[in-house]
Amino acid sequence: MVEEAARRDLAAIAITDHDVVGGIAEAQQAGQRFGVEVVPGIELTAEWDGRLAHILGYFIDPAHPELVVGLERAREQMAAHVRDVLDAARALGVEIDEAALARYRGRYVSGATLVLGMLEQGILRGSPHARQLLLRASREPRPFSAAEAIALIHAAGGVASLAHPVKLRRSEPLLPARTFAPLVAAGLDGIEAWQIVQGPTVRDHYRRVAEALGLVATGGSDCHGPRSVGMRLGTQRVPAAVLSAMKQCWRDRRRALPDRTGSPR
Ligand SMILES: [Zn+2]
What we know:
By secondary structure, this protein is an alpha/beta fold. It has helices at about 1-5, 25-35, 65-90, 100, 110-120, 130-140, 145-155, 180-185, 200-215, 240-255; strands at about 10-15, 35-50, 50-60, 145, 160, 190-195, 215-220. It has two domains: about 1-65 and about 145-255, TIM Barrel (Alpha-Beta Barrel); about 75-140, no CATH class. The site of zinc ion has 4 residues, from loops.
């Protein structure tokens, strides 16, 4: 990914895998080799207001013990979910090739992997249980509340930003600033404005929302690697000033915590 970022002329990228930090060290090493700044990050699967919310963490310490323990819990929940779905499928006479699932997601098998696997393996074609099993697989566990996710990111020294707000309520793509007050109270630092799924109208709306709430407007392509829906890396350019603003936010947060040292590159 980092090599590809260099090829696409990107000055910086963030690695924000879902609930996993296993790729950060490798990416940072590659970043030095290819001259791309790599921001260590995470995207936590959380629940807010009864809905799925993804909370991005930037400049995190991936080895922070509290984060490590939280992510371990998240992985256990996901593994249990995958086992439940496979058991349910088996009980319905549908056999899913588990060994093949790993190829859809490099680092861990999730509900999304199952959905992809079931569709690609064609197992559910014509099965009366298709809908039921796909729905069950897609209902992934949400290991953190949004407030917990923000607190965990802060504990690991990071800056917390709400990912793709347009996805929160599909029927209401332009949520007003006041909607996010509880997240701001929980310490949210940013809200994603530049996003591949957010067109110019939505992007500009959330830039204004961020400004109104005193948050940083963040951004990214939400690239999920070369395997899914094309290689999106770099398809959503984000101004360099956004990274500077995120770093400033990080420094302000650090200043509020005098026991911590260090700075983002
Ligand atoms: Zn997301």
